[in-house]
Amino acid sequence: MARADDLTLDVRGLETRFLTPKGPISAIRDVSIQVRPGEIVGLVGESGSGKSVTGLSIMGLIDAPGEVVDGEVLLNGEDLRQISARRRRQLRGDRIAMVFQDPMMTLNPVLRIRTQMVEAIRAHDPKVGAKEALRRCRDALAQVGIPAPEERLDAYPHQFSGGMRQRVAIATAMLNGPDLIIADEPTTALDVTIQAQILAEVQTLCRERGTALIWITHDLSVVAGLAERLYVMYGGGIVEEGPVDPVLDHPLHPYTDGLIRSVPWHNEPGRPLNQIPGMIPALDRMPRGCRFHPRCDRADEACRQPVALREGPDNRRVRCLYPLGKV
Questions:
Q1: Is the whole-model pTM more than 0.85?
Q2: DSSP 177-205
């Protein structure tokens, strides 16, 4: 466990609820994540596990009928849950930024790239002159591998391919040198060649600038080559965390093991794909205790009681009474 003063982001016990016709339901609960300067952390799990809600909660982008009801979100020691709305707007896009799966959630289709990027700079530093802002925009586009950045600044988003739009979104997020970027499956819709290029560029940018990055994905093959540490989510909570190689090579939690075994390249040709039995339960029907126990062949009556994260080998933690390895 890193010291608090070594961390860019320190999320402690985060819980987000949504008001529904059936009453308030927790989409995530007791989520704790730590990210150091320049570190890339992977947040993985099935659809519906709470990954995106976690990212939006950290950013302070949860709106009614949702609400962050518990926990701390410390960015360089400053609790983002306790600051004013004005201070939060100052930090977004400056010290903390988010890249979405669909770049058109970030880019305005009726404005030139030049206008959008310059506004992103001057919104946080009005003293920056036009020439300096344009220089920073050109440099940012060049850093993410966009050719002829001077010409591209005059283009509209629809004149870019999907991969190029995502590069623009990443460049815009990096413009003000943020301390933290949260990337929510930003390469899922891209072909593998473009995906590999963007991943390599992101790694370089984080290493050179010291930017911390949370990469949200369901694709284990992506985080295997990108992240340094991994957080595995299931049913709105963290079930395993640790350095990426030990977690993927020797998973402790049965759910992590099931995720890895369900990846196609783990299966022999001609044989049915391995699957985790059952389905992830609906938020309003989450089982008590370990939320994975109805799908787990190692579970017994004790798993129906609350299970805390336990220390494991290799600087890892796991939320399981009967882990696969020695704890």
A1: yes
A2: --SEEEEESTTTTS-HHHHHHHHHHHHHH
